[in-house]
């Protein structure tokens, strides 16, 4: 078999397949102070966020596919259900990403925080896409359409997905409360107060619009 275009003679087949060397070159803490433990904590912070973005790639793809497949009823329904279950699993993994940051010492975070500049996950195009897909006028809501046969199963999966997003929001809020207290966010919002206004009431979807700097209330 001819070598694949990403084949690298020095790596194992596993490393070449997953492009591990390139992936592991992307974690670059900026903190240049004397405390090695702070630099280590910044690395931890970067790895958690990058990992979350990788998972989001799959989540966005599966959410889009679920909405498209559900519209091809009845043949697309099993595929839509399977994708929605996977989305629920992926959102729960996102929650674990937030939870593991309990092990990020607050003093370390505050020590490297200025390196972030205006960087904030509220500027994540992929997170914004997930919120847009789940919004009241988003693609995922097509799964509730009356014309879709077998809609009860899909409706209940969408509700489970929205609940998982709400749990993620609550875990994130608790983390931000611990890390920042009443400090403003790097993305330009008031921080905890703004995030609280974005909380999804049980059984609802997050607002489609409302970037952090705009201080827009959730729907
Ligand atoms: C030390 C850890 C963290 C702190 C202090 C923090 C803080 C904040 C703050 C203050 C905001 C409001 C926007 C702003 O002004 O910046 C925000 C938004 C956001 N954060 Fe975090 N965050 C942390 C970790 C994470 C992690 C691990 C994720 C996901 C992987 C995440 C995802 C988000 C998202 C998606 C938003 C936008 C929420 C929305 O649009 O409703 N954050 N964060």
SSE layout:
Elements: H1 13-18, H2 20-23, H3 36-70, H4 77-100, H5 106-112, H6 125-134, H7 151-180, H8 192-198
Helix pairs in contact: 3-4, 3-5, 3-6, 4-7
Report on the structure:
The structure is a single chain. The protein is mainly α. Helices cover 56% and strands 0% of the residues. It is built from 8 helices and no strands. It has helices spanning 13-18, 20-23, 36-70, 77-100, 106-112, 125-134, 151-180, 192-198. Helix 3 crosses helix 5 (106-112). Mean pLDDT is 88; it is low at 214-219. Residues 48-49, 52, 97-98, 101, 104, 109, 120-122, 124, 127, 172, 175-176, 179-180, 185-189, 191, 194-195, 198, 212 line the site of protoporphyrin IX containing FE.
- Assigned CATH class: Mainly Alpha
Report the span from N to C terminus: 55 Å
Radius of gyration: 20 Å
Q: What is the H-and-E element order?
A: HHHHHHHH
- The CATH architecture: Up-down Bundle
CATH third-tier fold name: Methane Monooxygenase Hydroxylase, Chain G, domain 1
Count of discrete alpha- or pi-helical segments spanning 4 or more residues: 8
Total E-strand runs: 0
Q: Which range does the strand content fall in?
A: under 5%
Indicate the mean pLDDT: 88
Give the number of domains. Answer: 1
- Based on Cα principal axes, name the global outline: flat
Small-molecule binders: protoporphyrin IX containing FE
Low-pLDDT residue intervals, each spanning 5 or more residues: 214-219
Biggest sheet layout:
none
**Computed structural class:** mainly alpha
Helix content: 55-70%
